[in-house]
Amino acid sequence: MVACWRCGAAGDSTTAELRRCSRCKQALYCDSTCQRAHWPEHKRTCTKPTQSTATPVPVPELTVQKVVWEGVGCAKAKGNGKGKGKAAGGKCGGCGGCRARNLVVWLHGCGDTEQRLAKTAATMALPQTDSLSVRAPLTVPLVGGHEWYPSFEADGRMIEGVPGETRRLRQLARVRAALHRLVATEVQGRGWTHWQRVFFVGVGQGAVVALDAALSAPCLTGGAVAISGGCMLPEAHCPPASSDQAGTASTVELAHAATSTAVPSLERGLLWRQPDTPVLVTHGIRDQLMPITDARASFERLQAWLSPAACATWHQYDRGFGAFASPAESRDFHTFISSKLDLRQATLEEMSKDPDSTLIEITPPTRH
């Protein structure tokens, strides 16, 4: 499933429902109106495809665990035989007041599975919000668990993000396409006309994937939260915007793009195109997997690319690798989310003031 690059309406690119840009053969639109409206932004990256760029990227299948919000308290809700309305935990099933208005996609770290973040989502119980905890498609060699892109060489050494390294970026392109397809299917199934109710939250390796999925989405999403993982792969190059172009760049290129002509364009650049995306980045000052100085430098590179409207936020905590290890961290997360959710509820605002009620710490798996 794919979506219009301007409005986010889902459709099928193999039929007349969505039309491809006649030049780049990648951008999809509902009609000429959406195409013309999006052209000022799209023209920065619209190029004629070469033989290599025309090669489709294989899209992996993703395993998903859903945490469905059970709407209660609607005036039309039917009870379960033991009471009525809110007291019975009933749902009206038709008015829309009991249906989730938002969607959070949770992405775990390297060596983990979707189970841990599914429990986190269930414990947080964000109002009017469904959650999808997604399992990464690759298995970590020898260690077990799953990863979004390869982390280790055959001899067990970590893959270094140096110029010329493309393995992780190639896999990131595949994961990006799979997540966008997953979200487009969910958006269409809910009858939404845009993606601004969708949020990506990632821990560790999933933090990089969450930011990439949100910033490269076909239209603006609700936001992205990156926890204990930095903002981008080291081999990806995000040049600082000049003073007169801050926040206007539409594509993040690799540092070695000029010498890697054999790599398809989708994999040579992160293809970020949503500089207005709200972003929250958090990290532990005692994190030994990624030093706090490296994480901060990664955030500053990202911040230089984002527009002022994104209001990119950085928080650091006295912890190692992990997430939601303190009331302050939980409070910061809820404050960020509460300001972005559709139909913001007083309940969520109270959660941001009293994070202890939803505190659940995420500790490192066997390997990050």
In short:
This protein is α/β, with parallel strands linked by helices and 368 residues long.
What does this structure look like?
The protein has about 375 residues and is an alpha/beta fold. It is built from 9 helices and 13 strands. The chain has a 7-stranded mixed beta sheet, sandwiched between helices. Strands 1-2 form a two-stranded antiparallel sheet. α8 (about 325-340) packs antiparallel against α9. The longest helix has 24 residues, at about 165-190. The radius of gyration is 21 Å and the shape is globular.
Summarize the SSE layout with pairings.
Layout: E1 2-3, E2 10-11, E3 19-20, E4 28-29, H1 32-42, E5 63-67, H2 85-88, E6 102-107, H3 114-124, E7 129-135, E8 138-139, E9 146-147, H4 167-190, E10 198-203, H5 205-215, E11 223-227, H6 265-268, E12 279-284, H7 292-305, E13 313-317, H8 327-338, H9 346-353
Helix pairs in contact: 8-9
Task: Give descriptors for this structure.
two-stranded antiparallel sheet; alpha/beta; 368 residues; 7-stranded mixed sheet; globular; 9 helices
